[in-house]
Amino acid sequence: MPVPPQLRCCDASGCRSAGGQALRSALEGARDAAGLDADALTIKPVGCLRLCGSGPLVACDGPGPTQLFGGVSPEHAGALIAASHAAGLATSHTASGGDALAAHRLDLEDSFFALQQPVVLEGCGQVNPESIDDALAFGTYAQLRRVLQELTPEQVRDEVRRSGLRGRGGAGYPTGLKWDTVALQPPGPRYVVCNADEGDPGAFMDRSVLESDPHRLIEGMAIAAYAVGAERGFVYVRAEYPLAIERLRLALQQARSRHLLGNHIDGTTFNLRLEVRVGAGAYVCGEETALLLSIQGQRGMPQPRPPFPAQSGLWGAPTLINNVETFTAVPAILREGGDWYAAIGTEHSKGTKVFALSGAVVNTGLVEVPMGTPLRTVVEVIGGGVPDGSPIKAVQTGGPSGGCIPAERLDTPVDYESLLELGSMMGSGGMVVMGASTSMPEVARHFMGFSVNESCGKCVPCRAGTVQLAQLLDRFVEHRATPADMERLDALCQMVKVTSLCGLGQSAPNPVLSTLRWFRHEYEAACREPAACVAAGGVEP
Amino acid sequence: MTPSPPAAKLRLATVWLAGCSGCHMSFLDLDEFLFDLAEKVDVVFSPVGTDVKIYPENVDIALVEGAVANVDNLELALQVRQRTGLVISFGDCAVTANVPGLRNLLDAGHDSAKAVLERGYLELADATGQLPFAPGIVPELLPRVLPLHEVIPVDLYLPGCPPSAERIREAITPLLSGERPVQEGSAMLRFG
Amino acid sequence: MSVVTLTVNGQDVAVPAGASLLEATRAAEANVPTLCHLEGLTPVSSCRLCLVEVEGSGKLLPACSTAAAEGMVVHTHTPRLREYRRMTVELFFAEGNHVCAVCVANTHCELQDMAVTVGMDHSRFPYQYPQRPVDATHPQFTLDHNRCILCTRCVRVCDEIEGAHVWDIGSRGGQCHIVAGLDEPWGQVQACTSCGKCVDVCPTGALFRNSDTTAEKQPNTTLPALLRTAREQHRWHNQ
Fold first, then answer.
1. CATH code of the region A6-108
2. Considering only CA atoms, which of B18, B177, B38 is closest in space to residue B97?
3. C18, C26, C20: which is closest to C9 by C-alpha?
4. Who among C99, C109, C119 is closest to B102 (CB)?
5. Cβ <8 Å between B98 and C107
6. B26: part of which helix (H) or strand (E)?
7. How far is Cα A15 from Cα A27, in angstroms, rounded to an integer?
8. What chain B residue is nearest to C99 in terms of C-alpha separation?
9. ipTM entry
10. pTM for the whole structure
11. Which one of A211, A342, A435, C63 is at 20 to 30 Å from C127 when CA atoms are compared?
């Protein structure tokens, strides 16, 4: 029986901001006007269709091949309805309205789509994020049910360990090892926590997953809770993601009503209570010890580790903290097996990674590729390079904790170790492409300003050191630095990196250090002899 | 046997920028050591030792008291650096801007000159308040009071408010024989 | 009682299991500087002055909150540690408004002492001159934010020893400041028992008695340890 045609309209934040909701209403109106009912043509809100920069996006499934349209406005509604309905009858070019849509048709064979390998993003753009029935039909929760019925917690952890999955929050700690550490603590209560406090500028992977496929995350967390013996968990989402919070709360409610959360899940003895905790706008709460304090209602300030949360976390109990992407990868790993996942990627960085591609790049959006894909493939082939065709100058990865990778290193495979070697880091997955006109001291100052604003103020290198670093960078940006400033910049970067208490401070100098390493000449060009500074009246610091 | 000619004396200057002159008072507290000093140095510029108005060339050692607060201080500091071998930041005002620097607290230090003048001559004045205006006579204030080392490179720091005569002596004595003093411990370093 | 043995600056020391690295360095008379740490209060590792090198650890570890472990090889005064400590003290001086000459705590200030300890004769970082208020609403004490280094000793002593939790931290980053009650004037906070412990443990002149003027503050930082020990050992008859 042929599947009736359907239109999948992206209803995640990016496309919403481009007018996606108005488009969907117009499509529904046009469908009614064409005399079609909902069974004959489904118009479904879905999550991210990847090419965010060309929103609003609509995917058109018919008996023929799927077509994707971008940048469509409500006046194209009639043509889209006609195209979708006619898709099975004729090739799109001869379909009525085809001409009107020609400029909006996106090539799904294009490298941007063809080179992607969706694992975490499997359901993104496929399922209706607000419908648990749709998620269930797509296969979500099947692995949770199977795990509860067929596998012991040890077997689950074994599968995750074999997958080689590493934490996708940035540091890349082996997930299986973390799960074991929590599971093997002395008997007592345990917690699972999902870190959805995605705060890096240029990072929107977790937001897309939360907005597009929240049930998949819940399934992953439930499997993790079963594997480590937790009966309670929290998803800590930043308040700046209202749609993600709304959809996650709805999904939790739906899962509870279907007995996929709560007591006696799916008829077993496994219980799990999951709650959403909304952050209050502090970037530092993405740091795990600060996040845990915030969940407990306290001021979010990082604590010295050890003890690690896996030993002593929420209310002193062993606590498993993973990032959204990490949990979301788990159902696929259990479905296909740890070995399948481990076969993707590189020796030390296995599986796929989601990147949020933005900046001076043709294709802006969400990209999931195998680990080890050369950076050049991601930014030039998938991303399409700089819009005006000029060469890429650098790629910034890892946000304010990462660094700028120069064009001559674009052949580096994207994995945890390679990026660290270049003085950057994987980070959560934000990737900002920079063109020739970008000034590197300005980039460094921008990120340092971010760290100044987001320092929690607990330890002095981060609280006061970042302020001094930002002022030093001002001097370079304003071309009134001296060679002595260069020395101070180097020394203070090292000091803040090595002596700060938490990851925020330790990585705050990275944007400076990496640009100093690869673009030192830009800093040198901003230096003047001290005498020239005094002569120019630049005696003020 | 002819007596060997006396070794050339070191040329010493003491300079008074924006400070209370307390460091110079402490210098005078050296008492009889001043006689020893006079045998080894020529005081070529000093508010307490000479009546010279122009900072001379070829000075060996300069003790610079006070912060850099006005255009005269700035000009003199630059001259000192140009014409002196070893510049000592002498006392807390030179080292940290100290009390003169408190005016930087007005207007967060961006243009504390305007803020402090308005505070002093307008806000706190009686009915006839007016801003002083005497170009070429009263040196203009810099927007911000600076410690000496933010204006010129400094070779040695002698903190203290004021540095005690003892501390001054301990710092100067090795310099007279071409050695650097050991700037360590409470006796030599304490602020305040 | 089990014991761990470790090496500090080449010297073997033995400390009770559970002792901190700081205690171990003290057993070796290594003089690791501390500022936020105070005996009797929970360590917070925020001043970063007690960072030490432990062989085999990729990171510098705060001695105050790291447990001494068997076989550790610890270095407390390597050239880079000395340099970082000096820079740390410079950052403290540059971020606040510390004018020793006119401060109540002059000659009894731990920050002033620390500058001597780390050999800081001037700050290479420009002074920030932040605009900070003075809270003189309490009948007996004053809080001068200009001199506060955010060590949080007052926060901890009030919470952990006095049990009043009058103090906490407000805002973030360079804007961080100590708040009384729900960010009220100190004199209006009813939870304050006016015990003065916060004043006694304050390492600088940020908290002081109204009767004290320049260089007159006489802090007493031994109280928390005395009180905690007395409580734990039930030294009082009414316990």
1. 3.40.30
2. B18
3. C26
4. C99
5. no
6. helix B22-28
7. 15
8. B98
9. 0.96
10. 0.93
11. C63
